[in-house]
Design a protein that fits this description.
With 731 residues, the chain is an alpha+beta fold. The chain has 24 helices and seven strands. The radius of gyration is 39 Å and the shape is elongated.
C-alpha cells in the first residue's frame, strides 16, 4: 500500500468519525419530534372535551420539545395548554400560556406560531370582555395568516372578527365575516367549521331579534354536529336554540335544550359554560314567573322565582371566579328583576346598581375610543410595513446589481465603472421620488382619519352627556323609592317583634297555672275512688296536657320569630337522645296497638348541633306519625351515607297511617295550617309542629323531605352534614 492510499484511508476514517455522531443525533432528533407530534395530535383532539387528559399529553409533548430545544414544538404545545385552560374556563392561565408561546415563536422566527398565539390571545381576551385587546390580536393574526396564505388561519380570524363585531352590535359586518368564513370552510370541505359558521350566523340573527331565522340556522348547525359526533359544539348550539325557543315563548323546549347543555358542561367541567347555561335557566324561570297563564297561584310564582334566584346566584359565583364582566352584569340585571317580582326591593336596587356600574365600565367611551384608535393605528402600521418592505426589496436589488457589476469590473473596469455610477444615481433619484410620494399619501390618509376621529368623538361626547343626565334622574327616583321602602320595612319589623314578644310572654304566663292544674288533677285521679269522679279528674289531666302541648308549640314558634332566640351548638353523640325520645312515646303507641320499632345503623353518631332543637324536631315527627296512624306500624331508623366526599346523617320516621295527597305537602309546613281544619277535625292539633320542625331544620342547615300517598302512610326524612362546623350566633 503506497503513501497516497494510506493518507486517503486515514482521511476516510476521519470523515466517517465526524459524520456518524451527527447522523445519530439527527436520528434521535427525528424520533423525538415524531413522538412529540403524536402526543400533540392526541392532546389537540381531547382539548374541547377532556381538559385534564389534554393537559397531561400536551405537557409530555412540551417536555420532549424542551429537551431537544425544538422551538416550534414548545410554542405549539404552550398554545395548546392555553386552549385547554380556556375550554376549562381558566382564562388568566390561558392568556399567560399564549404570551409565553408568542415569545418562543418570535425568538424562533416561527411565523405561524406567532399568528396562532395572537389569534388565541384574541379569543381569550374576548372571553373576559377586553374587546380592544381582542380586536388588536385578531388584526395582527389575520395579516400574518394572509402573508403565509394559511387558509385555516384566515378562516378562523374571519370567524373571531365576526363574533367580535356581533358582540359590539355591528351585525351587518358580523354576518359578512361569518359568510367569508363559511365560504372558505365549504371550499376546504370542512364539515365541522361549516356547521360552526351556520351556528354563528344564527347567533347574529338572534342578536338582531329575528328569532325564527336564528332557530333555522341553529337547527342546521345542530344537525351537522350530530352527524359528525361533535358533542361539544352540539351542546353549545343546542343551548343557543334553547334561548331562541325562550324568546318565542316555547318554555318546555327551551328548558329541555338548556338543561341538556348544562348536564354536558358539568360532565366536562367547563366552568364558563356551566355559568352561562345556569344564567339562562334562571332567565327562563323568571320569564315563566312573569307569565300570567302559567301562574295560577302565588305559590307557583314564588317557587319559580326561588328557582330563578338559585340558578342566577350559582351562575354569578362562576363568573365572579372567571372575571367575565359581561356575564356578571347580565346576572345582576336578572337578579334585580327576580328580587323585584318577589317584592324584595332593597336587594333589587342593590343588584341593579352593581349591574349598571359594570355595564358602564364595559361600554365606556374609553373602550369605544380605544377600538377606533386601534383601527387607525393598524392602518398606519400597515403603511409603515409596506414602506419597510419596499425599502428592503430595493436594497436587495441594489445588492444583486452591485455584485454583478463587481464581477464585471474585472473585464470592463473603466467602462463599467461609469455605468455603475450612472445607474446608482438614477436609482437613488427614483427611490427619493417614490419615498416622497408615499409620504404625501400617508400624510393625506392621516389627515382624513384625524377628521373622522374628531367627528366620532363629538358624537360620543353628546351621547354620554344625554345618558349621564338620564341616569342621574333614574338614580334620584330610585333613591326616593328606596327610602320609602326602608321606612316601611322598619315599621314592619317593629310590629313583628312586638307580636312575637307578646306571644312569648303570654305563653309563659299561661304555662305556670297549667302546671298547677295538671298536678292537682293527677293527684285527684289517684286519690278519688269513685270511678265517675276519677274519670272526670283524668279528663281534666288529658285536656290540660293537650293545652300545655299547644302552649309549648306556641312558645317554640315565638322563640323562632323573636330576636332573642339563640342557637347553642355542641358536639354530641345523638343516638342516646334518639333512644330517649323514642322510649317516651312507647306508651302512646302501645295504647293504639301499633308496632313501634327503632332501627339504628350505628351506636355512635357525632353531630355538631343544638340538642334542644333536635329533640323538638324528632318529637314532632314521631308524635305526628303515631297520631295519624290508627293501625299498622311506626318505624324510626337512622343511616349514615357518603355523597361526593361529604358524610351525611339521615333519620327517617315511617308510618302506615292515613297518608296525604302530594299537593298538600307544602301546606303541612305552614304555621297554623292543617289538611283537615275547623272545629271538628279528625286529628286535633295546632298546626305548628311541622312548621317549627322545618324552621329548626333550616336553622341547623339541614333538609327535610316527605314521601307519602293517601292510604299508604308517610315517610319523613331529615338530613344533616356530619363534618360541617357552625359559628355560634343568634338566629
Amino acid at each position: 500500500m503506497n503513501k497516497k492510499s494510506i493518507n486517503l484511508s486515514i482521511l476516510g476514517l476521519i470523515v466517517a468519525f465526524l459524520i456518524l455522531p451527527n447522523n445519530l443525533i439527527t436520528a434521535n432528533f427525528d424520533s423525538d419530534t415524531t413522538a412529540a407530534n403524536k402526543l400533540y395530535k392526541i392532546a389537540w383532539e381531547l382539548a374541547p372535551s377532556n381538559f385534564e387528559k389534554c393537559l397531561l399529553y400536551s405537557d409530555s409533548a412540551l417536555k420532549i420539545s424542551e429537551k431537544i430545544g425544538w422551538g416550534k414544538g414548545i410554542a405549539d404545545n404552550l398554545n395548546l395548554i392555553g386552549e385547554a385552560n380556556r375550554f376549562k374556563g381558566n382564562i388568566k392561565e390561558s392568556i399567560a400560556k399564549h404570551k409565553e408561546a408568542l415569545k418562543i415563536s418570535k425568538s424562533a422566527n416561527y411565523k405561524k406560531g406567532i399568528a396562532d398565539s395572537h389569534s388565541k390571545l384574541g379569543v381569550a381576551y374576548f372571553h373576559i370582555s377586553d374587546y380592544p385587546k381582542a380586536f388588536e390580536n385578531f388584526n395582527i393574526a389575520g395579516k400574518i395568516f394572509e402573508n403565509l396564505n394559511d387558509q385555516h388561519g384566515i378562516r378562523n380570524c374571519y370567524n373571531f372578527m365576526g363574533i367580535l363585531k356581533t358582540t359590539l352590535g355591528n351585525y351587518s359586518d358580523g354576518i359578512e365575516y361569518f359568510n367569508k368564513a363559511l365560504k372558505l370552510s365549504e371550499k376546504m370541505d370542512d364539515e365541522k367549521e361549516v356547521a360552526v359558521q351556520l351556528g354563528n350566523i344564527g347567533l347574529t340573527y338572534y342578536e338582531m331579534k329575528d328569532f325564527v331565522k336564528a332557530l333555522y340556522y341553529y337547527k342546521k348547525a345542530i344537525s351537522s354536529f350530530r352527524e359528525i359526533n361533535d358533542d361539544y359544539n352540539h351542546s353549545i348550539f343546542s343551548a343557543n336554540a334553547g334561548l331562541a325557543y325562550l324568546k318565542l315563548g316555547d318554555y318546555n323546549q327551551a328548558y329541555f335544550n338548556l338543561r341538556s347543555s348544562l348536564n354536558y358542561a358539568e360532565s366536562i367541567k367547563n366552568e364558563y359554560r356551566i355559568g352561562f347555561y345556569k344564567r339562562h335557566l334562571g332567565e327562563l324561570k323568571l320569564k315563566m314567573a312573569e307569565d300570567p297563564i302559567l301562574n295560577t297561584d302565588s305559590f307557583t310564582k314564588k317557587q319559580l322565582l326561588q328557582e330563578s334566584e338559585d340558578y342566577l346566584s350559582s351562575s354569578l359565583e362562576n363568573f365572579l371566579r372567571l372575571g367575565n364582566k359581561e356575564e356578571i352584569k347580565n346576572n345582576f340585571f336578572l337578579l334585580s328583576k327576580t328580587y323585584e317580582l318577589n317584592n324584595d326591593i332593597v336587594n333589587s336596587l342593590k343588584c341593579y346598581k352593581r349591574a349598571t356600574i359594570i355595564q358602564d365600565s364595559i361600554f365606556s367611551i374609553k373602550n369605544r375610543k380605544a377600538i377606533a384608535e386601534l383601527e387607525v393605528q393598524q392602518q398606519i402600521k400597515l403603511k409603515n410595513k409596506e414602506i419597510e418592505l419596499l425599502t428592503q426589496a430595493k436594497q436587495h436589488q441594489d445588492f444583486v446589481k452591485l455584485t454583478i457589476i463587481s464581477f464585471a469590473i474585472i473585464f470592463f473596469l473603466v467602462s463599467l465603472l461609469f455605468i455603475i455610477m450612472f445607474i446608482k444615481k438614477r436609482k437613488q433619484n427614483i427611490e427619493l421620488e417614490r419615498n416622497i410620494r408615499i409620504r404625501k399619501e400617508t400624510e393625506s390618509l392621516l389627515l382624513k382619519n384625524e377628521k373622522e376621529l374628531k367627528k366620532h368623538q363629538e358624537q360620543l361626547e353628546e351621547l354620554v352627556s344625554h345618558r349621564t343626565k338620564k341616569l342621574e334622574e333614574e338614580i334620584m327616583e330610585r333613591k326616593r323609592t328606596e327610602e320609602d321602602l326602608i321606612l316601611a320595612v322598619e315599621r314592619s319589623e317593629t310590629a313583628s317583634k312586638a307580636k312575637s314578644t307578646f306571644l312569648a310572654n303570654m305563653s309563659h304566663e299561661l304555662r305556670t297555672p297549667l302546671f298547677g292544674i295538671l298536678g292537682y288533677s293527677e293527684i285527684l285521679s289517684k286519690e278519688i275512688n269513685d270511678f265517675e269522679k276519677r274519670s272526670m279528674a283524668e279528663g281534666i289531666y288529658r285536656t290540660g296536657s293537650r293545652l300545655l302541648n299547644t302552649l309549648s308549640m306556641i312558645l317554640d314558634f315565638a322563640r323562632v320569630e323573636s330576636d332573642r332566640f339563640e342557637v347553642n351548638y355542641r358536639e354530641i353523640n345523638i343516638i342516646p337522645e334518639i333512644i330517649e325520645i323514642f322510649n317516651s312515646f312507647k306508651g302512646t303507641a302501645a295504647i293504639k296497638g301499633l308496632d313501634y320499632e327503632l332501627k339504628l345503623q350505628r351506636e355512635v353518631e357525632i353531630l355538631y348541633i343544638d340538642v334542644s332543637m333536635l329533640r323538638v324536631i324528632i318529637e314532632n315527627l314521631i308524635n305526628n306519625a303515631i297520631k295519624f296512624t290508627d293501625t299498622g306500624s311506626v318505624v324510626v331508623e337512622t343511616e349514615s351515607i357518603e355523597i361526593n366526599g361529604s358524610d351525611e346523617f339521615l333519620l327517617r320516621v315511617r308510618d302506615t297511617g292515613i297518608g296525604m295527597n302530594k299537593k298538600n305537602i307544602p301546606t303541612i309546613f305552614k304555621e297554623f295550617k292543617q289538611i283537615s281544619e275547623g272545629t271538628n277535625k279528625a286529628y286535633p292539633g295546632t298546626g305548628l309542629g311541622l312548621s317549627i320542625a322545618k324552621k329548626y331544620i333550616k336553622i341547623l342547615n339541614g333538609e327535610i323531605t316527605v314521601k307519602t300517598a293517601v292510604g299508604f302512610g308517610s315517610t319523613f326524612e331529615i338530613k344533616f352534614l356530619k363534618n360541617q362546623i357552625f359559628i355560634k350566633q343568634s338566629a
